């Protein structure tokens, strides 16, 4: 009987459930894009909105209700879009919103690259370095970008496992 050799591929997984990934990102960063993407996902999938996202929308609605009350009491509305953006967690500047959108876009890209590397290793039986090159060419990014994305997402997976145990 041959002794089974453990390989690094056994620790690699494809992106976790969308809602679980959004919950993790929201828990770690308070990224206000996450509840909105969770809302879209549950509407498309028929799942139930998680408590953390529901709580975000409730808090945001209470913040907007406070603005309405303030104006109702004779206050000036001021810069309405900025004030609402603050209540939604995006900050009161355009830069605040850009930061969260960019963060989310990079995280999504990193998962796509990570999953492509895993598929190249598993299905094409490639070594990791060759998989990085293949994925970089296919996605029009540098090999270094693929490697960083892969390492970041593998770290997220291991953090999830530690958090759950």
Please explain how this structure is put together.
The protein has two domains: 16-92, no CATH class; 95-165. Helix content is 72%, strand content 0%. The chain has helices at residues 18-29, 33-45, 51-72, 80-87, 94-123, 128-139, 143-164. Helix 5 (94-123) packs across helix 7 (143-164). The longest helix has 30 residues, at 94-123. It starts with 17 loop residues before the first helix and ends with a helix.
Task: Supply the key terms.
single chain; 165 residues; mainly alpha; disordered N terminus
SSE ordering: HHHHHHH
* Structure summary, number of beta strands: 0
Counting copies of identical and different chains, the oligomeric state is single chain
Q: What class, by secondary structure content? A: mainly alpha
How large is the count of helical segments? 7
In whole angstroms, the N-to-C terminal distance is 33 Å
Give the tally of structural domains: 2
* Overall pLDDT metric: 83
Q: Round the Cα radius of gyration to an integer and report it.
A: 21 Å
Helix fraction, binned, reads: over 70%
Uncertain runs with pLDDT below 50, 5 residues or more?
1-12
Beta-strand percentage range: under 5%
The major pleated sheet works out as: none
**Large-scale geometry:** elongated
Secondary structure topology:
Elements: H1 18-29, H2 33-45, H3 51-72, H4 80-87, H5 94-123, H6 128-139, H7 143-164
Helix pairs in contact: 1-2, 2-3, 5-6, 5-7, 6-7
């Amino acid at each position: 009987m041959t002794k089974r050799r453990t390989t690094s591929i056994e620790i690699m997984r494809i992106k976790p459930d969308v809602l679980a990934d959004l919950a993790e990102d929201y828990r770690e960063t308070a990224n206000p894009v996450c509840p909105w993407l969770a809302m879209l996902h549950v509407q498309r999938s028929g799942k139930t909105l998680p408590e953390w996202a529901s709580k975000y929308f409730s808090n945001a609605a209470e913040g907007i209700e406070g603005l309405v009350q303030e104006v109702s009491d004779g206050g000036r509305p001021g810069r309405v879009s900025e004030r609402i953006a603050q209540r939604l967690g995006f900050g009161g500047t355009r830069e605040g919103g850009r930061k969260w959108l960019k963060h989310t876009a990079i995280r999504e890209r990193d998962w796509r690259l990570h999953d492509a590397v895993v598929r190249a290793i598993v299905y094409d039986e490639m070594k990791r370095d060759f998989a990085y090159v293949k994925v970089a060419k296919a996605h029009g990014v540098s090999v270094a970008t693929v490697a960083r994305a892969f390492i970041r997402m593998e770290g997220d997976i291991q953090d999830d496992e530690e958090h759950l145990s």
